[in-house]
Amino acid sequence: MTTRDHARRAAQRLGAGDRPDALDAGPGLPDRLVAARERKGVDLVRAERDTKIRVRYLSALERGDYRDLPGAVYTKGFLRNYAIYLALDPEDVLRQWRRERGDQVGPEPIIVPPRPLEEPSRPLRFSPSVVVAALLTAGVILFFVYLSSQLLRYSKPPELTVTAPATAVLQVGEDQTSYLLSGTATAGATITIKAAGQTQPIRVTVQASGEWSYQVDLRRGQNRFDIDAINTETGKSSESPRTVVITVPFLVFQAPTLVVTQPVDGTTYGNGAIAIEGTTTNAKSVTVRAVFLGSDLTGASAPTPAPTPAPPAGTPGPGASPGATPDPGTTVDVAEDGSFALPPLELTTGRWAITVTATSAEGKTASLTRQITIAYSGVNLVVSIQGGPAWIKVWIDGKLQGGGGGTVYQAGRTLTFSGVTSVEVRTGSSGSTRFTLNGVSLGALGKAGVAETWLFAPPAAPVKTQRQ
Predict the structure, then answer these.
(1) Rounded to the nearest 5 degrees, what angle is found at the Cα of 454, between the Cα atoms of 450 and 457?
(2) Which residues constitute the domain of residue 369?
(3) Residues 271, 307: one domain?
(4) Is residue 118 one of the residues assigned to a domain?
(5) Same domain, 274 and 316
(6) What's the Rg (C-alpha) of the chain?
(7) pTM over 0.85, yes/no
(8) pLDDT in tens, 204-233
(9) Domain end residue (candidates: 61, 76, 101)
C-alpha cells in the first residue's frame, strides 16, 4: 500500500472538518512535483545538477515512495530545496507531505537547506599561444625601455666640473713646477686637457665614482689648460668646457729661455719661404735676422734674376759676403703661452744664417742661430696682388690650371705656384701683380690696367709672351 492510500484512509477516519489541515481536493504531492518540473522544462538529471540532490532521491519524491529516502529529516530537507527549485511554496509542500504520510510528525528543528556545492576552482593553465603572447609583450616592453634609456643617454652631453683649482685664474709660487688638476664628470667619459705647445691633448678616463685628476707640468709665465669632457660612444662634448690659467712668476734676474722649432739647423730647403717658429719664457719679444753666407752650393746655382731684381727690404742679395751689413731683422711680440711665429722669410738660393733673439722686459736676451741652405729645384713662383684687383690665368709646365676663364683676385691675395720647367701667368693688371721667383723679388713687370702674359723658366729671365 502506497503512502497516498494511507493518506486517503487517514482522511476518512478523521472526517472532513475534524482537523484544520484536512486534505483538500487536488493532485497529490508527487503529481505536483512532476508537474512543476515539467513546467520548468528540466529533467531529473538537470534537476540533480542544479539542486545537488541525487536522481534516486528526486525520483522517490516524485513517486511518493519515501521508503527510499534516508529519513524524515533528510526528506524534509530534500522537499524544501526541491520546492524552492520548482518555484513552489516550501511550507505548503511540507504540510501536504505530512498530510499524505498519514502520521503525526512532531515539530522538528528547522533544517537549513544545504548550500549548493561550489565548483572547485580550476587550476591556472597556460596554453602555448598565451605563453608566446606574454613573451612577445615582455620583449616589446623591455625593448622600449632599453631604447628610451639609450636615447636619453645619447642625447645628453657629459657633465664636467673642475674642483682644483677652485678659480679659473690662479697664481702659484715661483718655485712650483706642477699642479694637480681634478674635478668630477660623467662616469666613463674622457677628459681632454690641451696645453700650449702640445700637439696632442692629454686624455684621462673618468672613474666609476665620477672623479678625475691629472698632474700637469708648469713653466714660468702663464700656463693655459683647456679642459673638456667627451662621451667616447657618441663623441659629444660637454656643454660647458673649462679653461684654467695657472701663472708661475718669473724671477726678475732670470734671462729668457728659447726653443726654435723651425727652421731646423743644417737643413736644405727646396724653396725660400722659411717659417720661423718656437717658444720662449720670460721674454716679451722675439727678433729674427737673416745673414747671407754665400752661394757656393755643390751642384746648385743661383737663379738669373730680371734686369732690375729687388731683394726683400733689408735682406742682402745673392753674392753678398758673410761680412755684409746684417739684416736689421723682424720683431714680433711673444704670445701669452710663450709661443711665437713670424711670417715666412723669402730667401734666395745659397747658404743662410738665421738668428733668433728673445728679449725680456728687463732687457735680458737669449739667442739661437740656425744655418740652412736654399737650393731651389724647378720653378717656385709667388704672385702677390697689390694696389687693386687683378684677373689671373696660369699655365704650369704648359698645362692650363683651373677654369679656362681665369679668376679675379682682390688686393692682398698671395698665390704660390710650383712647376718642373716653367710657370706662365697672364694678368689683367700687370702693375697690380708682383712676382717673386725662387726667392728673388721681381716686383711688378708692367703697368696697372695693362694685360700681359709672363713666362718664368729659370735660369732664363722672365719673358713676355702672347698667350691669351
Answers:
(1) 170
(2) 257-374
(3) yes
(4) no
(5) yes
(6) 58
(7) no
(8) 999 999 999 999 999 888 899 999 999 887
(9) 101
